[in-house]
Amino acid sequence: MPTLEINLTKIQHNAKILKNLLAERNISIIGINKVTQGNPLIAKSLTQGGIEYIGDSRIYNIIKMKKNGVDAQFVLIRVPSHREIPLIVEYTDYSVNSELETIKLLANEAIKQEKIHNIILMIDMGDFREGIDPSNLEFFVKEILSLNNIKLSGIGTNMKCFRGIIPTVENMKKLSRYAKKIEEKFGLELEFVSGGNSANFKWFMSCKNLGAINNLRIGEAIFLGRETINFDPIPNLYTDVFKLTAEIVELKKRSLNYNGEYVSNAFGEPVQDFQVNDNNREGKIKNEVRIQALLDIGRQDITLNGLTPIENIKILGASSDYLIVDTNNNEFKIGTELSFELNYEALLRAMTSPFIRKEFISSK
């Protein structure tokens, strides 16, 4: 069975480094744990690194973390669905919102549960994911303030996700102006002015004046040690928190001169034609052979393009059940385990797959 090795010590280290770095300039972190399916052990590593707020996009992940003793303030970072509103009010401290109808339903449920529910109003600043149009901000704030048992605790925006808009000095200044405008007009003191996510790291490091921005929602930078614009490593962070291993279950020589008619593969994708037509000096067709291995992991478990081999091999492709690699003439055997680093998407799939064993370690 493939194994995903998870280093809890390195997660705690990365969380602590980033928390302290951002805190020097009064930026708090909502540690986003959604990529791990809200794993409680990983969440506890975040809190042990100093993270006070844990965010997740699935209410059932938040419930799991709370029931397993994770001591944090919980933020639902996906716009609520109506059927989950009772659970959201019961189990979360904050939720991000962009629909007035939904906010009113949250207010009604909060009244029933005799609780105050905090919301972060999301503003779309060009990424075209969730968020209201900035021109409607004052109207939304006025309506929200008229509701009982709802507190407007902040505003936020999303960057570098759906459309790929990146944080800049200009758009972060706009968000700061929106925050200051509604604070002055409505007599508010916003707990959160949340400027984005791990893609904001370069803006944070290069910008001299952060304005009103006082929060970032950070997941990938903690778990993979990289910012998410150019995916450059962040100094003093571990980039090898997670390691995936899979076993060679078949090892064969394959001739690349196999004749046949080619169509798309099982996923409807065009495939590389492995026919070799290079003539050697004798005018004969070159019979190229490679040693090919099948590993016990496939597209059901991972994203193919999200894997980087640690050993000197070449990934050729994948079916539902197998990862297919060129061994580059390494002397592997059946049962040999090969290792891979993962990007965020591959990590998301691997954490979700029930066919990958999760192994937690606590060492550097």
Task: List its salient traits.
364 residues; alpha/beta; TIM Barrel; Lyase, Ornithine Decarboxylase, Chain A, domain 1; 2 domains; 8-stranded mixed sheet; 8-stranded parallel sheet; 10 helices; 24% strand
**Unreliable runs, pLDDT <50, ≥5 residues?**
275-285
* Biggest sheet details: 8 strands, mixed
- Count the helices. How many? 10
Q: Care to count the β-strands?
A: 16
CATH class of the largest domain: Alpha Beta
What's the CATH topology name of the largest domain?
TIM Barrel
- Give the overall form: elongated
Q: What is the gyration radius calculated from CA atoms?
A: 24 Å
Describe the structure.
The protein is of the alpha/beta class and 364 residues long. It has helices at 8-23, 40-48, 59-67, 85-91, 100-113, 137-145, 169-186, 201-206, 220-224, 344-352, and strands at residues 3-7, 28-32, 53-56, 73-76, 94-97, 117-122, 150-156, 192-194, 215-218, 242-255, 289-295, 307-309, 314-318, 323-326, 337-342, 357-361. The chain has two domains: 8-224, Alanine racemase (TIM Barrel), CATH 3.20.20.10; 242-361, Lyase, Ornithine Decarboxylase, Chain A, domain 1 (Beta Barrel). Helix content is 28%, strand content 24%. The strands form two sheets. Strands 1, 10, 11, 12, 13, 14, 15 and 16 form an eight-stranded mixed sheet that branches. It has an eight-stranded parallel sheet with strand order 8-7-6-5-4-3-2-9.
